[in-house]
Amino acid sequence: MMDPVVPAVASGAMEDVLATRLAAEERAYAGAGLVLQYLLHNGLGTIFDDEILARVRGMLADCARQLAAALIGPDRASHHGEATVDALIAGLAEQPAVLEHLHALALEWRLALRLRDRAALDPALSPLIQEQIGAANPSVSTLAVNLMAAQARFCQQQRRMQLPLMELPGDVLNRAIRVMQGVAREADADAVQAERIVRTGLDEKRSRLALLRRSVAALGERAGVSLVLAHAGAALFVTALALGAGCSREAAVFATAEGHETRLLLGLIACGLEESAIAAQFLAVHPGGTVPEGLGLVAPERAAALLSGYERS
To answer: Does the reported pTM lie above 0.90?
Structure first.
């Protein structure tokens, strides 16, 4: 939870308040990958609770099984490929970008479940997606139907702690393939053929994350509605937050977690929301939280600059 209400002050002073808080949050964020690696290896059970760890482990194992099937064949991977799967899990767990992405997906799912429990919001079919399905423009309607289907698959996958390789962003998939190539040398497998199998049918433009980005873009001048959490749902909200604040989607998801409240406030400011809207969306994410006064004194470009400074560091 944020500190008690900060009285309205000059814009420079409010920037200093937010920058100081952000620096404290980012020190924790910077070490999150190493902490997650340690917890995964040591089986210990905020953002690292038992459910999140179990979900990250499950997705790691699922990705490893898919890579093993490409390396040594599905039958061998299922019945005699334990060593290969274990080596792939260990290798993937050493990749910060892979862990960050899986961690973000687990946190996104937790936010979606909280919205379902608090506001009866369907994780697969938010009011905004439903509204777009009924749009007069056939391309918008078709896009929304495809997004609904992708969200339904995501929900099922998260319940099963699974993640298809085709849903990984390109840079994360490339890192996973490099891990597979390293394991291939020890498994006496054909890494080139395995990569070809993994990439067969891959079309990043049809992934859930691409559909979310396209759906926000399709709103045009109405894109602001995707920053209304109770209307857009978790998936579209964090996508719009990332696009509007100029940060990675993973960083936008982490901004919704406890201990990252300043990042969320700065992200909402960077998106150009009015102070009342910032407060409303902050409280939608953190019911019972405290919003500092004077956020409207901070210009969106200054908020974006603060965030981008930490994105690069």
So the answer is: no
